[in-house]
Amino acid sequence: MAIDQSLIQTTPVISAIINADNTGVLTVDGTEEQFTAEDSNGLRAQLMSRVFEVALDRGRPVRVSTMDESGLTGLRVSPDRQVEAEDTEEAQSPRTLETSTPAPAPATPDRKTAKQEPAPQPKESATAASAPVSTPRPQALLALKEATAEPLMEPAIDEAAAQAQQSTPVTRRTLRDAESFLSPHGATQPATQGMRGWLSNLGINIPPSEKELAERVDIERVSKHWAGTRTIMVANRKGGANKTPTVKNLAAIFALHSGGGVLAYDGNPEVGTLGWRTEKGDHRSTVLDVLENSERLLSASAVSGDIAGYVHHQSEDRFDVLRSDDSLVGTHVMTGKDVDIIHSVAAKYYRLLVMDSGNVDRGSDWARMIAHTNQLVVPTTTMEDRAEAALLTLKALHERDEYAAKLAQDAVVIISQWQPGEKAVADRIAEGFRPFVREVLTVPFDPALKSGRIVHSALSSASRRAWLRATAAVAQGL
Fold first, then answer.
1. Are 389 and 358 in contact (CB under 8 A)?
2. Could you report the per-residue pLDDT of 408-454, keeping only the tens digit for each?
3. What pTM was computed for the model?
4. Whole-angstrom Cα distance, residue 113 to residue 101?
5. Which DSSP category does 184 fall into?
6. Bridging pattern class, strands 262-266 and 71-77
7. Are the C-beta atoms of 412 and 250 separated by less than 8 Å?
8. Is 258 exposed, middle or buried (0-12, 13-18, 19+ CB in 10 A)?
9. Domain boundaries in the chain?
10. Helices 384-400 and 423-433, interaxial angle, to 10°?
11. Which residues pair with 380 in a beta bridge?
12. Of the candidates 140, 126, 143, the residue with the CA atom closest to the CA atom of residue 24
């Protein structure tokens, strides 16, 4: 049975803020209660139990506005532990719903003496109380303090115009112009994140928040399959510009959402770090082994499993790594022809190739990487010399030839915070790049990227979301 909305009044005013550290604050008519739990589900259960108690004390349903990482959610809660979702306008505009029988209309006054009385104004509604809690407090309080004006009345329907429209004869057109009756969009899946997702798991069908919908769009973009192999080049002329973590995260996200078929290639002409920061297989093969056996790998009799003896599979992130030559006494110098062979092998076995270019941009190998690239990604950190090197990389490509200039113009720049609390620096650098490339994105500092083996799932949720957004921007250029 649905909750009777006519029983809901303007009081009590209830708001709940759920923080990422599994702490929360419930505010009932200005009185705050602090909550802590071992996980987010436990915290939400505690908060809802307390709201049920408030509804039971009042003996009627109440309205509660909740704010968490998924956004603002409005709920109606009854004393018998029923919960219903309501739209955002209702959640932000709690108001009294009259329950009494409408009063009889007053007697019609004498038209000669009657004065037009002003329309009665709605009672001022209470606003949700603010709560001094930790992040995401500013956004939460802003959403909970929205104005509580009544919704505008819909304009009256002009019946004569409606009838005239119905009587208008249908203009005949060719069947080629007929629109399909089939909806181009599938049904929207219920929410899976935050308070909305928790309620969906309880069987309460509630739509996803705007944040979750935006994330679903990004996932759809990185999940796309293209005809033929696509190649991404990650380039910056200076070391320490976050090229290796960028290659790793891009490859991981594409592989996780598109079903594999992704190769990360360390194209550093010297000893690259991609092999150091990724999982090692049960062999020691490098790019030199692929070159030595390229004829067999490219033969018509070769099968998909043959490449497994030359690449190192990332069991958690589901993509493969082709390492650079790591011999301490190696003498092989990569050439443009070598790059062409490597790319041919990669195109035979993989749908997507993410290349780490290394730091030397004057050899024929670097030039051939550019020739094979579909989307250029230029990473940098908040360190000024790395940002300057990124800018010089773009300038050099712009002066190189027409194709390289187009890559630079359509590049995606990804700026990583080198230290915590450098968002303002990252934003300032981003504004410097924005007029010259297709897109600029920033990602937060994450200690999981500073050293050691990189596993994408070990990143913070904020970092994973930022890298997904960046990867979606890259995907749009493929």
1. no
2. 999 999 999 999 999 999 999 999 999 999 999 999 999 999 889 99
3. 0.74
4. 30
5. S
6. unpaired
7. no
8. buried
9. 1-96+133-148+189-208, 219-475
10. 20
11. 415
12. 140
